[in-house]
Each structure stands twice: as C-alpha cells, then as structure tokens.
Amino acid sequence: MGPKRRPKKRPCRICGRWFNPNPRLGKRQKTCGADECRQRWHAKKCAAWNRRNRIYFKEIYLSRRMESCSGGTCCPTPSLGSTSRQGGGSMPQRASPLDFPREVIQEVIGRQHTVIIEYILRLLMREVQEVINAQHADIHQGFIRLPLSSISRGDSQRPP
Question: Structure pTM?
C-alpha cells in the first residue's frame, strides 16, 4: 500500500476561507475549524435535521404532556409574563396560543383536554402564520416587478 494522500485545500462552507482539512477527517471536514464556523455549521445541520424530523417531535410532544398531566399534577403552559427558577437561573416560558382563563377551563373540561386544545391551537396558529408569510412574500414580489412610477405617491416626495 502506498502512502496516504493528504486531502486538498477546500473552502470553508461558512466563511469561505480556504483551509487544509485534517487528514483524519479528510472529505468529512466542511469548515475551517474556527469556533464560530463550527458553531454555525452545527446549528445549520441541527436545524436541517429538525426540519426533516418534525413528525418525530410532534409525536413525542403531546404524549409527554399527556403523561405529565395523568400523574395528577399537570404542568400547564405558562403565560408569557411568568418566569420559573430552574437550574438557578430564570428562564422566560412560552406563551399560551390564546390568552384564556386556563384554570377555569381546566376545572370544567379537565387538564388533559386543555393540553390537547392548546396543542391543536398551536398547530393551527403555526399553519396560519406560514400562509400569511407566503402571501406576504408573493405581494412583495409583485411590488418588485412594478415600475417605480406606478408605486410612487406622486406628491412632494418626488424631486422636481
């Protein structure tokens, strides 16, 4: 067997600087090794994995919330203004999709039903927001195609 060839220089996928990959990593190394580049590459790959595996999280989220409520003490989704002390630091907690009297609803229909309703509301609100964002992008593209004279107000803003 002949000597191993050293991988050729390549550009970093984050910053674009050229680097010599580590011989142990070879073709698998995608960034130059700077801390910022590695962190950004890791975040990018995690986000892609989360997008591909969105169903996994949808399946386990509701089942875990239901299990936590079946024990008798339900951890309701806190309101936006409240904070909790976990691990010594205060962390802001997620807001409920709608501002409704959670305690009253839990007394009437039960804790598990409230969790299911909140889950469905979150999914609906996410879908509606995606549709709104898509329409906003379409409208913006339409304005870009229009000539500037048709968008102008025609008042004193135009130079003489």
Answer: 0.43
**Average pLDDT of each block of 10 consecutive residues along the chain (160 residues)?**
74 94 90 94 94 83 78 50 40 52 77 84 89 83 67 57
Amino acid in position 90: S
- List Cβ<8 Å contacts ≥24 apart for 2-11: none
Count of all residues that appear for the chain in the document = 160
Amino acid 99 reads D
| Helix 54-70 vs helix 111-145: crossing angle, to nearest 10 | 150
Closest to 111 measured CA to CA, from 149, 71, 143: 71
Q: Per-domain residue ranges for the chain?
A: 9-40
Q: What angle do CA 124, 101, 122 make, to 5 degrees?
A: 15
Per-residue CA distances from 26 to 8, 12, 147 (Å): 9, 13, 51
Calpha distance 27→7 (Å, rounded): 7
Q: Which two tokens stand for residue 136?
A: 């906003």
Burial 88-102 (b: 16+ CB within 10 A, else e): eeeeeeeebbeeeeb
Residue 103 in contact with residue 62, Cβ under 8 Å? no
Q: CA-based angle 114:116:119, to the nearest 5?
A: 110
Helix (H, G, I), strand (E, B) or coil at 63: helix
